[in-house]
Specification:
Layout lengths: L11 H24 L14 H24 L17 H6 L6
Amino acid sequence: MNDNKQYIFDNPKNVKLLIRALYTCCFILFAMDLIIHRHIYHPWEEFTGFYAFYGCLACVVLVLLAREMRKVVMRDEDYYDIKDENDNQILEEKKTGEKVDG
């Protein structure tokens, strides 16, 4: 099947526009940190841009933690396939009626 449909992010110009919009939003929110009064509970919250750095650090930690968790929870590709006593795959046999080589 040859799909020639053009999607919005297939055009590099649209990708650059989106990235610039995100950078602009980040800059505006960071600049608003200087203007808006915050009710802080901890002394480290008074640093300019604390929430931006905290959020970025939290995302990095989540990604690194997920990479390590993947090693623990990842299963084989055929984990849910039905096996017989000889450890041969029989799920496809039931669907198609043909013998699948194991």
